[in-house]
Amino acid sequence: MTTPTDQLSPDTLEKYFRSGTVTVHHVNDSPEVDITIDVDSVNTGTGPFNSHLKSAEILNVAAYPTARFVGDKFVFEGDKVKEVTGQFTLMGKTHPVTLKATKFNCYQNPMLKREVCGGDFETSIKRSQWGASYGLNYGFADDMRLVIQVEAVKQ
């Protein structure tokens, strides 16, 4: 997952979460996705900034080590997912979000001999809704774009 944000500069700062799990259930034509993100895996490429993001002042990783999205409403265009609506939990607060697919594809993986589906999904949130309000009084943007990249192998 990446979270590009504007930090009072002309460029975009991207923060990556390098670790997490994805579970997709497709029972009785009612798909559900459960994405858990290891918030401690945040990586900006700068150690001191990573530490600040993990601190109680921003993401409070010690108290809230994971973020989670559980989606249960899918919109398809043909056989491709166009969006998934569900609940996003960060720092102990849960709010509805809709992830829109910017890319999505399924294919038969020649090495695994199984179907693999993957895509890029994004949404924008107001980080203050989840308690991440550091810097707002300095003029830092409240809007944050979440980009979630997933790949799942059919079991």
Note down, in words, how this protein is organized.
By secondary structure, the chain is mainly beta. It contains one helix and nine strands. The protein has one helix at 47-54; strands at 16-17, 20-27, 30-38, 42-43, 66-77, 80-90, 93-109, 114-126, 143-153. The protein has a seven-stranded antiparallel sheet with strand order 2-3-5-6-7-8-9, with no helix packed on it. Strand 7 (93-109) and strand 8 form a beta hairpin. The radius of gyration is 17 Å and the shape is elongated. Mean pLDDT is 83; it is low at 1-15.
Characteristic key phrases:
two-stranded antiparallel ribbon, 1 helix, 7-stranded antiparallel β-sheet, elongated, 155 residues, disordered N terminus, mainly beta, 9 strands
Biggest sheet details: 7 strands, antiparallel
Radius of gyration, whole Å:
17 Å
pLDDT averaged residue by residue: 83
Distance between the termini: 23 Å
Quantity of strands, as a count:
9
Can you summarize this structure?
With 155 residues, the chain is mainly beta. Helix content is 5%, strand content 55%.
Helices and strands in order:
Blueprint: E1 16-17, E2 20-27, E3 30-38, E4 42-43, H1 47-54, E5 66-77, E6 80-90, E7 93-109, E8 114-126, E9 143-153
Antiparallel strand pairs: 1-4, 2-3, 3-5, 5-6, 6-7, 7-8, 8-9
